[in-house]
Amino acid sequence: MRAIVLVGGLGTRLRPLTLRTPKQMLPVAGRPMIEWVVEHLAAHGVDEVVLSLGYRPDAFQRAFPDATCAGVRLVYAVEPEPLDTAGAIRFAADQAGVDERFLVVNGDVLDDLDLSALLSFHAQAQEARGTLATIGLTPVEDPSPYGVVETDEEGRVLTFVEKPGTGETTSSDINAGCYVLEPEVLQRIPEDGRVNIERETFPALVAEGLVSAKSQQGWWIDVGTPERYLQASLDLVDRDPSSNGAGSVADSAMVATSAVVTRSVLGPGCRVGRNARVENSLVFGRAIIGNGATVSGSIVGASGGGRRRHGVGPVGTGQRDRGGRR
Hints:
The protein is α/β, with parallel strands linked by helices. It has helices at residues 33-42, 57-63, 84-96, 115-129, 197-206, 226-239, and strands spanning 2-6, 27-28, 31-32, 48-53, 68-69, 72-78, 102-106, 109-111, 133-139, 147-151, 157-162, 173-181, 211-215, 220-222, 247-249, 254-255, 260-262, 264-266, 271-272, 277-279, 282-283, 288-289, 294-296, 299-300, 311-312.
């Protein structure tokens, strides 16, 4: 089984953290985000992942020089120009020679949805009614920031409602950013130029009754904003029984004995000073939390070369310590 992972975006909503680093290479609970994504795919039988790259492809190639991640073979497909979602899928598939049923996932979504069940559902729908694409769905409490997918009782997609307002839909099932596609879908995507799969490819297939969808409950988070990026790390800390309340602390992190760290992630080489408090936060490697500082609900970027780098506080500004330093 092969999967295409879309990782070509600029990650503008996560700036300044993504000014030099692709979003999927940012650390989440102590590991690059892309490792969590590929590991989840591997757990459901995927043995080769095609990374659809655009922004800073060198970062991925340096991180995985032997072209393997989480025990899975990697193929690098670097877009010559931004091609949007469908265009990126076609380009990556052509580059890697994908000619059989395959998975597609967004590289900035973390979840524990059952991809094996999604594949099985798609196979049944394909045999029963010629389905060419199956969309993974998940219910959310507030679907208004997302794309809602309405289906019939058999799971055939009827319509899409983008960022619905009150009363526009009775469904709470949103597009979870994972798809099963037959290779015939690729021939319906123009070879050149930008093409969006959600707004162009899928609606055209829905008009022919060729798209199905399966909803699953589970942990799911779109890591697209600073708030959700921080939440992803904290969620994974909460799901780890070995965290013991402190969270995830790298072996090389230096924490003063009088410091208090709760439900946080400390990266390699970071330092937490005397009587400092770090709670519900993500601290990058090499960051320095000064003596007596309090950091709460924040992201603290790395420091290096004597320069202050990036920090994202609870309301989008760096949380400062008592000495006025970021």
